[in-house]
Amino acid sequence: MGIRTVELFAGVGGFRLGLESTNQPFSTVWWNQWEPSTKVQHAWQCYVEHFHDGMPELAPAGSNTDITQVNPADVPEHDLLVGGVPCQDYRFATTLAQTVGLQATKALLWWAIH
Fold first, then answer.
1. Which helix (H) or strand (E) holds 17?
2. Rounded-to-integer distance, Cα 81 and Cα 95, Å
3. What is the side-by-side order of every strand in the sheet holding 3-8?
4. Each residue of 44-64: pLDDT tens digit?
5. What's the pLDDT at 103?
6. Whose CA, among 11, 34, 62, 107, lies 20 to 30 Å from 56?
7. Are the C-beta atoms of residues 80 and 6 closer than 8 Å to each other?
8. CA atoms of 22 and 44, how far apart (whole Å)
9. Which residues of the chain have pLDDT under 70?
10. What's residue 102's pLDDT?
11. Cα 105 from chain centroid?
12. pLDDT averaged over the chain?
């Protein structure tokens, strides 16, 4: 089975692609991707298309749910936990006065990994 991996904030699967490009036997046993501000879950759909032939029914190990609503007991046993923490609130492509950093909504999601 290799290194059992759980991927949080999976996006379109960039972290998974990086792991799979190594010579290590990674196996993604569960992943989560959810964008709260949109009805259409584009990143989720891209992940399913790329890794599960576009069929959500082939992605039982995936969760398209707010990570704060996931019961930790529902996450399978794993060896490696990875997470692409949403970076929007950390960016500095604005004035310093408008940057909210760690107090912003998405910035707090790192607690879900903790």
1. helix 14-20
2. 34
3. 62-63, 26-32, 3-8, 80-83
4. 889 988 887 767 666 667 888
5. 55
6. 107
7. yes
8. 24
9. 1, 54, 56-60, 85-112
10. 53
11. 16
12. 79
Does residue 6 contact residue 82 with C-beta atoms inside 8 Å?
yes
For residue 94, what are the contacts with CB-CB under 8 A and spacing of at least 6? none
The percent helix, strand, coil of the chain (3-state, each to 5) is 40, 15, 45
Please provide the distance, in angstroms rounded to a whole number, between the alpha carbons at the two ends of the chain.
25
Q: What is the Cα–Cα distance from 33 to 84, expressed in whole angstroms?
A: 10
Q: Report DSSP state, residue 88.
A: G
DSSP 76: P
Catalytic residues: 87
Question: Do 5 and 19 contact (CB within 8 A), yes or no?
Answer: yes
Residue 50 has a pLDDT of 87
Cβ 89 vs Cβ 107: under 8 Å: yes
- For residue 52, what pLDDT is reported? 78
Residue 93: both structure tokens together:
């492509």
